[in-house]
Design brief:
The protein is of the alpha/beta class and 242 residues long. It has helices at residues 29-40, 88-104, 134-142, 155-166, 185-196, 206-241, and strands spanning 8-10, 18-22, 44-50, 59-61, 64-66, 69-74, 77-82, 109-117, 127-131, 146-147, 171-178. It contains 6 helices and 11 strands. Helix 1 (29-40) packs across helix 5 and helix 2 runs parallel beside helix 4.
Amino acid sequence: MENGKPVSIVLPDIENPLLIEGYPGVGLVGHIAANFLVRELGMEMVGYVESPFIPPMALILDGKPNPPLRFYGKDNVIIAVADVYVAPTLVNEIVRELTTYLKKRNAEKVISLGGIGIGFFKEQMDVWGVGAREELNKELEGNGVKLLQYGSIMGMSGRLLLEASRNKLDAYVILGETFGDRPDPKAAANVIEALKRLVPLEVSTEPLLQEAKAIEEQLRKMHEQMEQARKKAQQHYESIYL
């Protein structure tokens, strides 16, 4: 690796970049949202993370091999995605190098997308967030995002927020409420809607909402089948022992 560093960020020179990070996490909310934006905005892969500590693999997309940790770009927007689990020590190194890149190029904004598990369902799932500074928190609240006052943000999103704030960058984390035990495209749609109030992105989240409805219908059918099986087993038990 260059200069003996464990991680190298391979990216072209993009001035005033707007970084959106969507690594896998709770409910895969950030991962779903980031990949959806890449697809809907017609973005191309512009870079990747190189490290001997990344699992040896190639991700095949549209019949072509791709690195598992990639950057997509269009104009000054960069989206960071990952398709493998990234160990905490590697996250720290990636964030350090990425923050250096962003600071040198006077980044416009650094925004992480993710989920916050609540363990139950409700009619309207909220979106929470926190910024690197008080004025950024006010900006979030002014755009309908609930301010996260206490708690912890793990992984890439938390470390990127911390490192970006230390380097005086405008950094935010936006978290969509989700049950937490399954992929949640509806939470991803909620997060994107909040993101659109912070940055000028023209994209409809309707496809994600339709995907969410399909998943909910599948879960409903599975629940009905399980309930029918339970009742049948109970009737069988009662016919033998009662």
